[in-house]
């Protein structure tokens, strides 16, 4: 009986890890898309106008904002960096 529970635990751990790898980007994309949609509703025309002015084009529209936010957040998730401060209060 103990071996059965150990086998179930190992399989559950492996499937959980695979599930995390698969669904983590999906959750990131979905949450960032919702954030982009809120941004579009609140200030979408200003952002699209600013992007068009900055890049001298008419390509950007407010409908593009949620997809752009979601894509950039999903890609950016894999390029996180962390800073370490070893100063210990000395100047």
Q: What is the average of the pLDDT values?
A: 88
Q: How would you sum up the global shape? A: flat
Alpha-carbon distance between the two ends: 61 Å
The DSSP helix count reads: 2
Low-pLDDT segments? none
Q: Beta-strand percentage?
A: under 5%
Biggest beta sheet summary: none
Derived from helix and strand composition plus strand pairing, the structural class reads mainly alpha
Order of helices and strands: HH
Q: Could you give the count of β-strands? A: 0
Rounded Rg: 22 Å
Relative helix content: over 70%
3D structure, described in words:
With 91 residues, the protein is mostly helical. It has a domain at 24-78. The chain is built from two helices and no strands. Helix 1 (2-55) crosses helix 2. The longest helix has 54 residues, at 2-55. The mean pLDDT is 88.
In terms of topology, how is this protein built?
Layout: H1 2-55, H2 65-76
Briefly, what is this?
The protein has 91 residues and is mostly helical.
Task: Spell out the key features of this protein.
91 residues; mainly alpha; 2 helices; 0% strand
């Amino acid at each position: 009986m103990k071996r059965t529970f150990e086998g179930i635990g190992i399989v559950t751990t492996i499937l959980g890890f695979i599930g995390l790898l698969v669904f983590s980007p999906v959750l990131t994309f979905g949450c960032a898309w919702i954030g982009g949609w809120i941004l579009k509703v609140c200030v979408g025309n200003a952002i699209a106008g600013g992007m068009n002015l900055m890049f001298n084009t008419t390509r950007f529209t407010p409908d593009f904002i949620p997809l752009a936010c979601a894509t950039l957040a999903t890609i950016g998730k894999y390029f996180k960096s962390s800073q370490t401060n070893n100063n210990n209060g000395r100047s």
